[in-house]
Amino acid sequence: MKEHSIGKNKIFVLENNPQGEIFKYPLILVHGSWGGHWMWKMYNEFFTEKGFKTYALDLRGHGRSGGELAGATMDSYVNDVDAVVRELVIENPVVVGHSMGGLVTLMYCAVNRSVKAMVSINGSPSAEGQGGGEEVKYPEVYSPVEEGMPTDPMEAMKVFPDIPQEMLMKMKEMLGMESGAARSQRKMGISVPKSSIMAPTLFIGTEKADSVPFGVGIEKSRAMAEHYGGDFLEIKGATHPGILMGEKWMDGAKAIASWLKSLK
């Protein structure tokens, strides 16, 4: 395990190296709104055990990274991923993103032909998969509570039934703030032309992704797969964050590993 601080924004990266035989394509793990590399803890452990090399990063203004969160755009986040790939000389990466990170990885894939494959887990849709956008003005930075995260512990357990109470409390403590500019862009819709995506794509949707207002419903994940000609998998019983930190996390991790190992 190694830690890196990349570029002027000091993008934090946790690098995990497996022992023994290593899968030929390294994984770059990109978190969603308010999150950080810590959201991938169980996936990191699973993938490392299965022979995958992983790089889990904190986007600018998140977790242990520097940089300004206010005014950060979706392109800013794409640039963070690009900086990590370039400085650490990561060849033929597989980019894996959750929620907002799913759209970041799609945008990165569109402008980087070296990407071997892309996986979007409950990913925010592009304009093409969104079915219409709207202009919404957000504060410079905003909290998960402002987007509908329950503050009452009992209510939180109700909307996230797949996340153990201890993990749920830890998640709520770890969540930070998010860029209003990036959120406004996603609401309006960001175009990622189908013709720009050359790598194989996998879109994962979860049965209970829309149990909270900020969740990305499974039909949007399905629509994205159909539009981009990618593969689609549904994970039963998982909520929007629960697919990474809940009882069904291994279903998602196993599905990704199996799909990746089927690539030529």
Ordered list of secondary-structure elements with their pairings:
Blueprint: E1 2-6, E2 11-16, E3 27-30, H1 41-49, E4 54-57, H2 74-87, E5 94-98, H3 100-111, E6 117-121, H4 127-130, E7 141-142, H5 153-159, H6 165-174, E8 178-179, H7 180-188, E9 201-208, H8 218-228, E10 231-239, H9 242-245, H10 249-261
Parallel strand pairs: 3-4, 3-5, 5-6, 6-9, 9-10
Antiparallel strand pairs: 1-2, 2-4, 7-8
Helix pairs in contact: 1-10, 2-3
Task: Give a written overview of the molecule.
By secondary structure, this protein is an alpha/beta fold. The protein has a single domain (2-261), classed as 3-Layer(aba) Sandwich (Rossmann fold). It has helices spanning 41-49, 74-87, 100-111, 127-130, 153-159, 165-174, 180-188, 218-228, 242-245, 249-261; strands at 2-6, 11-16, 27-30, 54-57, 94-98, 117-121, 141-142, 178-179, 201-208, 231-239. The chain has an eight-stranded mixed β-sheet with strand order 1-2-4-3-5-6-9-10, with helices on both faces. A two-stranded antiparallel sheet has the order 7-8. Strand 1 and strand 2 (11-16) form a beta hairpin. Helix 1 (41-49) crosses helix 10 and helix 2 (74-87) packs across helix 3 (100-111). The longest helix is centred in the first third of the chain and has 14 residues, at 74-87.
